[in-house]
């Protein structure tokens, strides 16, 4: 017997959001779904929200295509319920789990702090044509490992397969990643691939475009001798890494940045160019530009001014891992007051970083190179590194920008100054 039609609309995700981008469907017309099964992913300002089904039934129609912009309240999907089923459910709750990741890229395990509690759903024996229940992140990793999720024993709520379940299966049965396709080196190739720019990649593109369109960038590059700093880092790691964690170069640079903005508070600011207000911040919330499989994101080390080297290092590593795994929260990806960017060994000689609007400054770290330097009339080998920076020239004068970078350089070349409070 035909059932009633339940229309699920695009939920109000809060914070004044009026529209969302549809970045992934997890079902198709004809699929059978159960309560709380994920239906689709939508994105709003670098946050992905998974929309679950409030009812059980059969998918009748989808309300849009991947990449389409939908208004809050617009029809998302229609589900036919069997007669005698549960009465129409309330609208989809707005406070659903959020995470940052690329379109069509799996969602991370449900560990985000703001994850709302969900009702346990019955084990879906035939939902989605016996499709195993797993987050998109688990599905992607399973594909990369060559593991059929139907062979993995689930341990999560409602029979959901977790990352730990996948790890256990691989430990017991091994991985079988798909073999790379054979290449025809000498064959003529004229195929083309159209890749829609959607989801996080679209957000990044729009953010970069808007930053370059609105902000007159002033770039400044200076070299710094990091020989003494690297020697100090080596000593500290030899003595403390086993107990307190390994120190990379970034915590030292972040410490130098914290101290430099005390002298130049106009650098640690955000510019609302529409309201014409520059907001200077006492707290230093450093965004650390991080490359992930899904694109560039900027997790934020909050209150860097109150952290020591090891605390800074641990928080930076935690945020980077969360960003790369696609489970960084909205709060962890917003609110930075200044940004530090590093490509490590791929940092090149110099770069022209794009400001993370509405901030007014960004400092990029280039790679360290050992080269001969004239010092006191003698040629010696020193470890040199460039600092490439960009500033919003509307509110930061070139002289102040240069003096700020020189302050950082002085502390980097004389690392004892990093531990002397002014």
Shape summary = globular
Helix share of residues?
A: 10-25%
**How much of the polypeptide forms β-strand, as a percent range?**
25-35%
Structure class: alpha+beta
Tell me the series of helices and strands, N- to C-terminal.
EEEEEEEEEHHHEHHEEEEEHEEEH
**What is the overall pLDDT average?**
84
Treating each run of at least 4 consecutive H or I residues as one helix, how many helices? 7
DSSP E strands, number: 18
Q: How can the largest sheet be summarized? A: 7 strands, mixed
Separation, N- and C-terminal Cα atoms: 78 Å
Compute the CA-based radius of gyration.
Answer: 25 Å
The low-confidence runs, each spanning 5 or more residues with pLDDT under 50, are 85-123, 125-129
Give an overview of the whole structure:
The chain is an alpha+beta fold. About 25% of the residues lie in helices and about 25% in strands. The strands form four sheets. Strands 10, 13, 14, 15, 16, 17 and 18 form a seven-stranded mixed sheet that branches. Strands 7-2-4-5-9 form a five-stranded antiparallel sheet, with no helix packed on it. Strand 17 (about 360-375) and strand 18 form a beta hairpin. Helix 5 packs across helix 6 (about 310-325) and helix 5 (about 250-265) packs across helix 7. The N and C termini lie far apart (about 80 Å).
């Amino acid at each position: 017997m035909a059932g009633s039609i339940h229309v699920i609309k695009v939920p109000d995700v809060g914070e004044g959001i009026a529209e969302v981008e549809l970045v992934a469907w997890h079902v198709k017309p004809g699929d059978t779904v159960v309560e709380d099964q994920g239906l689709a992913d939508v994105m709003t300002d670098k946050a992905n929200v998974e929309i679950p089904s409030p009812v059980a039934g059969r998918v009748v129609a989808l309300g849009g295509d991947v990449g389409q912009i939908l208004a809050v309240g617009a029809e998302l999907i229609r589900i036919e319920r069997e007669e005698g089923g549960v009465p129409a459910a309330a609208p989809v709750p707005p406070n659903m789990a959020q995470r940052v990741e690329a379109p069509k890229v799996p969602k991370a395990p449900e560990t985000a702090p703001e994850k709302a509690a969900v009702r346990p759903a019955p084990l879906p024996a035939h939902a989605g044509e016996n499709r195993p229940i797993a987050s998109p992140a688990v599905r992607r990793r399973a594909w990369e490992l060559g593991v059929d999720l139907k062979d993995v024993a689930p341990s999560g709520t409602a029979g959901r397969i977790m990352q730990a379940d996948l790890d256990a299966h691989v430990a017991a049965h091994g991985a079988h990643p798909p073999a790379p396709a054979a290449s025809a080196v000498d064959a003529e190739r004229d195929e083309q691939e159209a890749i829609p720019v959607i989801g996080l990649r679209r957000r990044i593109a729009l953010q970069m475009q808007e930053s370059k369109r609105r902000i007159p960038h002033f770039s400044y590059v200076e070299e710094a001798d990091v020989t003494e700093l690297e020697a100090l880092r080596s000593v500290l790691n030899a003595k403390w890494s086993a107990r307190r964690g390994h120190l990379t170069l970034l915590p030292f640079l972040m410490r130098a940045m914290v101290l430099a903005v005390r002298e130049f508070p106009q650098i640690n600011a955000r510019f609302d160019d529409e309201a014409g207000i520059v907001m200077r911040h006492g707290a230093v919330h450093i965004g650390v530009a991080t490359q992930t499989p899904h694109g560039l994101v900027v997790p934020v080390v909050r209150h860097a001014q109150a952290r020591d080297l090891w605390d800074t290092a641990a928080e930076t590593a935690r945020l980077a891992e969360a960003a790369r795994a696609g489970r960084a929260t909205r709060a962890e990806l917003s609110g930075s007051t200044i940004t530090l960017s590093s490509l490590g060994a791929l940092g090149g000689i110099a770069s022209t970083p794009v400001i993370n609007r509405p901030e007014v400054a960004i400092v990029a770290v280039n790679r360290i190179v050992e080269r001969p330097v004239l010092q006191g009339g003698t040629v010696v080998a020193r470890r040199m590194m460039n600092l490439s920076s960009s500033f919003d020239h509307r509110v930061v004068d070139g002289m102040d920008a240069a003096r700020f970078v020189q302050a950082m350089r002085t502390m980097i070349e004389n690392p004892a100054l990093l531990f002397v409070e002014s």
